[in-house]
Design brief:
single chain, mainly alpha, three-stranded antiparallel β-sheet, 3 strands
């Protein structure tokens, strides 16, 4: 009788932990599939989603929110602009060549 029985609390925590991991994995895979279907990478897709949700955002703000560098954000916005399907664009601040605000408009897409 050396086997130790798990308490109901331990079993519940183990089951919930396992289900939470499965759910998390399913959500990540779902978002990856959506991004791929739209012709985007997962990072670009999530940045687009943040722009849609938050409205006009500076590159520095988007970098801070996502943990990406401002250089990476510049690349993300350039790719979204290049696709020209989602209404992502830069609004350059007057007289400041490197300062811009990213925005998203709900204009119809080419999809």
């Amino acid at each position: 009788m050396g086997a130790t029985r798990k308490s109901k609390q331990d079993l519940a925590e183990e089951i919930v932990g396992r289900l939470a991991r499965r759910h998390s994995t399913a959500v990540v895979l779902f978002h990856h599939a959506v991004a791929e279907r739209l012709g985007l990478g997962p990072t670009d897709h999530k940045c687009l989603d943040l722009l849609r949700e938050r409205g006009a955002t500076t590159g520095s703000e988007l970098a801070s929110i996502t943990g990406l560098t401002t250089g990476a954000i510049t690349g993300v916005v350039a790719r979204l602009e290049h696709l020209d399907m989602y209404g992502a664009s830069r609004i350059h601040a007057t007289g400041v060549s490197r300062s811009s605000t990213q925005r998203y408009s709900n204009r119809p897409s080419r999809m």
